[in-house]
Amino acid sequence: MTTCAGCGEKEASRLECPNCKKLGIAGSFFCDQDCFKKNFQLAAQNEANKESTLPPSMRNYKFTGTLRPVYPLSPKRVVPPHIRRPDYADHPQGVSAIESTREKRIKILNNEEIEAMRYVCKLGREVLDYTASFIKPGITSDELDAICHQACIDRDCYPSPLNYAKFPKSVCISVNEVICHGIPDQRPLVEGDIVNLDVSLCFHSDLNATYPVGKIDDESADLIATTKKSVDEAIAICKPGVPYREIGNKIEEIVRPKGYSIVRRYTGHGVHERFHCEPNIVHYGGSKMPGKMEAGHVFTIEPMINLGTANLDHWKDDWTAVTLDGRRSAQFEETILITETGYEILTRPPTTTSSSSHKKKKKKSKSKAHANGTATPNEGDETPEAGTPTGEAAEGVKELHVNGS
């Protein structure tokens, strides 16, 4: 629903402010003629004020929706020198040397590297959940960035986005029509927004989720639920021998009946000591993407689902991707390990392996419980116990040397 730019309460009609239209400012619509007469000058002034906070490079940009960034950005946050840094951390252009050398095949992680991934993905989940707990109307995305940054530092981890290809912040925060790579700024979140937090920690865990800000409309709630379901269903088919293109086929199966669209420009990816690498994971159906899953592969599944068109544009900040029609977008992301018999979701809270043998055990234990007249705790929960290293293993992983980190 588009809210009236005058009263800020009712649903807007197609009655647009002529001054805003002349200035190329999209989204200034009013609920009725009386509201328009009372408020159009004030609305135009408010839009002009929003423009005045923008850097010169963005002032003539025709925004696709109603969201506007609020500058200036805060200074780059400091990472203490004792924290191991990725190879792009201090590069003037944020270039990763190890990523500049293209891999010939998908890396199969050894046991030590898998333990490292388990450990850092556990920390990534902690950071995401902690940062998300502060989401509420009135908080700025820059304040959320500060919270996320400190949570990474408290865990002796480098926040992976910081200076990666010159990204200026420690977390990507994407609001409403922003598809991905939103730069945290001074705009306060408002009731009814939806916001995606995309958290990554070095040696690299990668995960994100979309959250409501206060009460949201039913359409946005369904978009979020459908996006989450598409990720869960896609993960459920993962095991050795499955072609990577089947991930997109499964997501399409969930999303298309709703009339939503799937962004094609951005994909999931391999992740370990390299932040982004093979395999590429497309999230739409009918692709000819080569490759099959093998035990030891680690990658992300992270579809970006839009209410309207899949087409996108970019703000003039080198990063922020937005829907071309200004309608909302949602995303969820998990980091997945392929095991000998199935998959392990590294970025979910403890208890997250799945395999055919695990399912059989689970079924057996459930039957036993029913036979004894008892209920199994958390019955139906698909997140069992493996995935979090023991304290001793975690301590050992901290000292693991990884090229480029």
From TrEMBL:
PROSITE patterns linked: MAP_1, ZF_C6H2
The EC number(s) this enzyme carries: 3.4.11.18
MF terms in GO: initiator methionyl aminopeptidase activity; metalloaminopeptidase activity; zinc ion binding
Any one cellular-component term (Gene Ontology): cytosol
Substrates-to-products reaction catalysed: Release of N-terminal amino acids, preferentially methionine, from peptides and arylamides
Biased composition (Basic residues): 357-369
Keyword check for Metal-binding: yes
Keywords, in A-Z order: Aminopeptidase, Cytoplasm, Hydrolase, Metal-binding, Protease, Zinc, Zinc-finger
Region entry Disordered, spans: 347-405
InterPro entries: Creatinase/aminopeptidase-like, Pept_M24, Pept_M24_MAP, Pept_M24A_MAP1, Zfn-C6H2
List of residues binding Zn(2+) 3: D198, D206, E333
Places the protein is found: Cytoplasm
Pfam families (UniProt xref): Peptidase_M24 (PF00557), zf-C6H2 (PF15801)
Location, primary (coarse class): cytoplasm
Top-level taxon: Eukaryota
Amino-acid positions noted as binding Zn(2+) 4 in the UniProt annotation, renumbered to this chain: D206, H269, E302, E333
GO biological process, one term: proteolysis
Keyword Transport appears in the UniProt entry: no
Cofactor binding notes: Binds 2 divalent metal cations per subunit. Has a high-affinity and a low affinity metal-binding site. The true nature of the physiological cofactor is under debate. The enzyme is active with cobalt, zinc, manganese or divalent iron ions.
Domain C6H2-type span(s) in chain numbering: 1-59
Function: Cotranslationally removes the N-terminal methionine from nascent proteins. The N-terminal methionine is often cleaved when the second residue in the primary sequence is small and uncharged (Met-Ala-, Cys, Gly, Pro, Ser, Thr, or Val).
Subunit structure, interactors included: Associates with the 60S ribosomal subunit of the 80S translational complex.
Protein name: Methionine aminopeptidase
UniProt source species: Kwoniella europaea PYCC6329
